[in-house]
């Protein structure tokens, strides 16, 4: 008789707006569970563990609304102390995006002008114009960050404050031809060419409104 010992290394990492420090009070917390080797059963194991914890009566952490999203990218969603938490598994793209955005903020400098502009513009989109919310088919955070990055690419030298970035953001995109073009950090993208571009893996769509990254 032989025994096989499998050691699974697991790490839980934050990504998204919280570690980037561009979150709003209504925002959620994004976590990804990285396991080596990759375990197909891990999402369901986490889901059942949270269900069991929900009935333990922990007074410090109120756990509720636990859901398992059985999609191509499997998610476990829950609410802890009225804060929504999304848990993904072995998804490194979010961590790569976080590193990229941190590098852009460092490159732009000026006392974190990029991050401060993201917070202001995200607040305007969420509270004033009500166009934020990828789950409702509205603008995603990644799409918004791509839009802001292009503004910095075009007008970086003239941007001195988050309020000025918001002004240029509204001025530029209010006149943009969204019916025919999307935006990437490299500039406008002809939507009629988008299927061919995606097929060549030269561009990845993020969010809505034809925004690409």
Describe the structure.
The protein is an alpha+beta fold. It folds into two domains: 9-89, 2-Layer Sandwich (Beta Polymerase, domain 2), CATH 3.30.460; 109-199, no CATH class. The protein has helices spanning 17-20, 42-54, 93-108, 113-128, 141-155, 162-173, 194-199, and strands spanning 9-15, 29-36, 63-69, 75-80, 83-89, 181-184, 187-190. Strand 4 and strand 5 (83-89) form a beta hairpin. Helix 4 (113-128) packs across helix 5 and helix 5 (141-155) packs across helix 6. Residues 199-213 have low confidence and may be disordered. This is Polynucleotide adenylyltransferase.
- Tally of separate helices: 7
Coarse structural class: alpha+beta
Mean pLDDT over the residues: 87
Instruction: List the uncertain runs.
Output: 199-213
Keywords:
single chain, 213 residues, alpha+beta, Beta Polymerase, domain 2, 2 domains, 5-stranded mixed beta sheet, two-stranded antiparallel sheet, 7 strands, 20% strand, disordered C terminus
Give the topology.
Blueprint: E1 9-15, H1 17-20, E2 29-36, H2 42-54, E3 63-69, E4 75-80, E5 83-89, H3 93-108, H4 113-128, H5 141-155, H6 162-173, E6 181-184, E7 187-190, H7 194-199
Parallel strand pairs: 2-5
Antiparallel strand pairs: 1-2, 3-4, 4-5, 6-7
Pfam family, one: PAP-OAS1
EC number: 2.7.7.19
Domain PAP/OAS1 substrate-binding-related: 108-200
